[in-house]
Structures are given as structure tokens and as C-alpha cells.
């Protein structure tokens, strides 16, 4: 039985290495951001999972297998989120080729990619600072919307997420 598990482990290791290699080559060869993101997440994660499976079949120790499972869980939790954030930022910056998209769910009403109210990266109704920088509304009065706090002035929401960020 040990010989069969070693052969299966070797096959998983080689297949995982080939998938990871193909992901690396695709990152260099693919023409646009979204294609590169796809290549950097899907085959790379599957390749890593196959390598981890091969290592688990080869090592067969409870502590080692538990560690490999934790690595797999963290990789599967972080890679899609990171790819989503990079893709969204690239789309809003205008780096995605919208002519290759079948459905563009992020386009604004005027059809411009990532543009809302003529400014990239802002949601509709989001306040803008005087210098055009996206900002946070400070205070309730309309004259204070989008105003930066002066030095030493308390910022509403400081310490809770990014609501009180200063620019």
C-alpha cells in the first residue's frame, strides 16, 4: 500500500508543479489584466493544492497533514479575495480591456468602465473633497461634507475601520 501512495503522491506533485508553472508562464504571456488574474489564481491554487496533497500522501504524519490542511485553507481563503481586489482596482483604473468582456456589470450608466459621475473609483453619492480627492463626510452640515478636519480636530469614527481616515 505504501508504494501505491508514493506513486499517487508523485503524480500529484508533478501535476501540481506543472499547473503552477503554467500559471507563471501565463502571467508573463497573457495580454490583459483579467486574463493574468485568472491565470494567477485558478491554476496556481489548484497546483498548490495538488502539491499539498502529494506532500500529505508522502509524509502521512498527523501533525504534518494538519499543517498542510491549514495552508490549503488559508490559500483558498486569500487568493480569491486578493484577485477580486486587484481586478476591481484595475477595472476602476481603466486597465481592463472592456472589449473582451461578455457582460460588464461594473459599468456606469454612461457605459464608461469604472466611472461614476465622471470620476474613477467613487460610488454614486460618495462625497468629494475640495481638491477632487474622494473623502469622508465630516459633520452633518452640508458645508462640512467632504471637508478635511484641521490638525487636532477630532475625527468622527476614528479607530473604527477607515471611516475616520485622514488624507
Describe the structure.
By secondary structure, the protein is mainly alpha-helical. The chain is built from 3 helices and 2 strands. Strands 1-2 form a two-stranded antiparallel sheet. Helix 2 runs antiparallel to helix 3. The chain is flat. The C terminus is likely disordered.
Outline the fold blueprint.
Elements: H1 2-29, H2 33-59, H3 62-92, E1 115-116, E2 119-120
Antiparallel strand pairs: 1-2
Helix pairs in contact: 1-2, 2-3
Largest sheet report? 2 strands, antiparallel
Strand order of the largest sheet: 1-2
Q: Write down the Rg.
A: 23 Å
Proportion of strand residues:
under 5%
Shape: flat
The count of DSSP E runs of length 2 or more, i.e. the number of strands, is 2
Which regions contain 5 or more consecutive residues with pLDDT less than 50? 114-119, 128-146, 160-165
* Average predicted local confidence, pLDDT: 76
Count of helical segments? 3
SS-derived structural category: mainly alpha
Termini gap: 63 Å
Quick summary:
By secondary structure, the protein is mainly alpha-helical.
Name a few traits of the molecule.
2 strands, 167 residues, 3 helices, 2% strand, two-stranded antiparallel sheet, mainly alpha, disordered C terminus
